[in-house]
Amino acid sequence: MPHRVAVLALDGLLPFELGIPHRIFGRSLEPAPGNKGAKLYEVVTCSVRPPGPVRTDSDYAILVEHGPEELATADTVVIPASYELGPVFEEGRLTEELAAALALIRPGTRMVSICTGSYVLAAAGYLDGRPATTHWSSADHFQRLFPQVRVDPDVLFIDDGDVLTSAGVAAGIDLCLHLVRRDHGAAVANEIARRTVVPPYRDGGQAQYIHRPVPEPQFATTTAARAWALGRLDRPIQLRDMARQESMSVRTFTRRFREEVGASPGQWLTQQRVERARHLLETSDLSIDQVARDAGFGTATSLRQHLQAALGVPPTVYRRTFRASADTP
Asked: What's this model's pTM, rounded to 2 decimal places?
């Protein structure tokens, strides 16, 4: 049976965010010739009330044909942002209507928020003692309202196992692609990204989108250095070599890189090498030692350590899981 995703539409919702789960999950298919495989997810939109119109932040409403009972059938519940959260946003407490709807969710259901949908998860207690993120402009308010949550305002999304939160708006695409990648592997997620015309994995975090009062000159970028590094991930890459591609000092390059990407050059290189290793494990028959060399980790031990840290599984388990999925007709 397809994995069932219920998207909870609240008054004041942003139509763009409401459509993200349908676009990403709804178009995810089993690998098959001609991309004609069966759907991997079933996506349904529901309201906290019986079927009827739900207000948006635009000049139109959306007719939602399912009530809160759909939440009881979901394997994953996604809560997009809303501009009319009322006491949830102001006091950190659920309305009776929303609390009754969330009470229908089965234990163990995966919970996901997009942007300020995290306020709902926090008010319901799902984020107590856990790491979470939200839109950068709301991060300080979110932390004050929910001091029991470990807020990270710099990342695009946080995966804490059965509870996942994303930053603002388009970061919901990053999170949904991450879930497809986690559930079915990079090949399926990459195909959805191509069809959606978005990058399968976006570098850095929210830091690159926060307005800075005194911006650096626009011509000083690190794009060429990143392109240079991506073309030679299988070889040693020194920070000074990356800085040389932009004719910058190491100190200036490091500062500019973090401002643009939201991560240090070393963190970014590790992320890219992990993604290269995942791709090779899923799509090739190379030995683990060769995958480690081609991804730039050098040894199987180093690859194992980095993959375990990033994904929670060693290379052999990752390959067995996702090669089996990709080889299924």
From this structure: 0.72
